[in-house]
Fold this sequence. Notes:
CATH superfamily: Ribonuclease H-like superfamily/Ribonuclease H
Number of helices: 6
Distance between the termini: 21 Å
CATH architecture: 2-Layer Sandwich
Largest sheet: 5 strands, mixed
Helix content: 25-40%
Number of domains: 1
Strand content: 15-25%
Shape: globular
Strand order of the largest sheet: 3-2-1-4-5
CATH class: Alpha Beta
Amino acid sequence: MLNPKIEYTYIDIETTGLNPATDHITEIGAIKILGNNIVDVYDELVYTPKKINSRIYELTGINNSMVEYADGISSVLGSFSDWLGLEKRKLQFYFGYNSGFDKRFLEKAGLKIKIGDVLPIAKKNIKNKDSYSLYNLGNSLGFSLGNVQHNPV
């Protein structure tokens, strides 16, 4: 049971690749949880000057035409920061799955927040998996995640 007085926010991003120095964020997604209830969802595509290749499209379902007219990263980070409520003084906990990856991209883009990582918890509590990707882990636990392997929300 989650502490009902703490707002937990799951954060996930999609990118054009693996390297924050050369790749770009294409989508930011997050889910706010209070108690056992989802109270809000954020999902925004991000314009990127870098072309999205076919492998990234297969993983994320995001293609170049989807981000062509999306807002740029500065604008999206501004609305995301407002949505997170970073200026408010309330008890919040941010987490993700393999969140070090997301954190590096968010910091490169200008957003610095502490994000807890639940991947080590999954590895500790769910043994003998060939892959700990969120997609494979979800499928092995009986969650139907469809054809797209990555999607923030």
